[in-house]
Amino acid sequence: xxxxxxxxxxxxxxxxxxxxxxxxxxxxxxxxxxxxxxxxxxxxxxxxxxxxxxxxxxxxxxxxxxxxxxxxxxxxxxxxxxxxxxxxxxxxxxxxxxxxxxxxxxxxxxxxxxxxxxxxxxxxxxxxxxxxxxxxxxxxxxxxxxxxxxxxxxxxxxxxxxxxxxxxxxxxxxxxxxxxxxxxxxxxxxxxxxxxxxxxxxxx
Length: 204
Known about the structure:
The chain has helices spanning 86-102, 117-121, 128-137, 144-157, 162-176, 183-202; strands at residues 7-10, 16-19, 29-30, 34-35, 41-42, 45-46, 67-69, 106-107, 139-140, 177-178. The protein has 204 residues and is α+β, with helices and mostly antiparallel strands. The protein has two domains: 7-102, no CATH class; 108-202, no CATH class. A three-stranded antiparallel β-sheet has the order 2-1-7, with no helix packed on it. The chain has a three-stranded antiparallel β-sheet with strand order 5-4-8, covered by helices on one side. The chain has a two-stranded antiparallel ribbon with strand order 3-6. A hairpin with a 5-residue loop joins strand 1 (7-10) and strand 2 (16-19). The longest helix is centred in the last third of the chain and has 20 residues, at 183-202. The radius of gyration is 19 Å and the shape is elongated. The relative contact order is 0.14. The mean pLDDT is 84.
């Protein structure tokens, strides 16, 4: 989807960082954190506006120098890097999340057992003032997925219709998340919480 050209940095293979250029900057886009069957935690991220990576030196985990394929920083002109747009980045991250789920990896949203649903989303899970603060102040990087999941669970627990819940979650994401998550990621969160709520209702 995004091509194989460009500069690729390796620090702890098979993990890698690929450099692109963009004509219009955008915020970071990422999948949820996934846990593989071997209990390794992984995510795919696209870093852009205001973000950076380590390009030289020694990797703290392996003790070995970072290596580059396709050129090193300073040797390749910006114009020679492949272009990446926000739309393509969103599509790539959504497909990466789908691939990890297809391999049986679980994300933080899927890891709540059904019998813990009420403890996370039900009555008394958060006081009214906490919900007010969430709606008023929104969520930044690191808390957006969990905040949307809690909001969705809260609404579904109170029998708000799923499509209405989705629209409210998308509106909260657009207006209160900094930066907003990809639309596809919000839909995935809503689908996951809907499945948990359905299982909970079947046990009633």
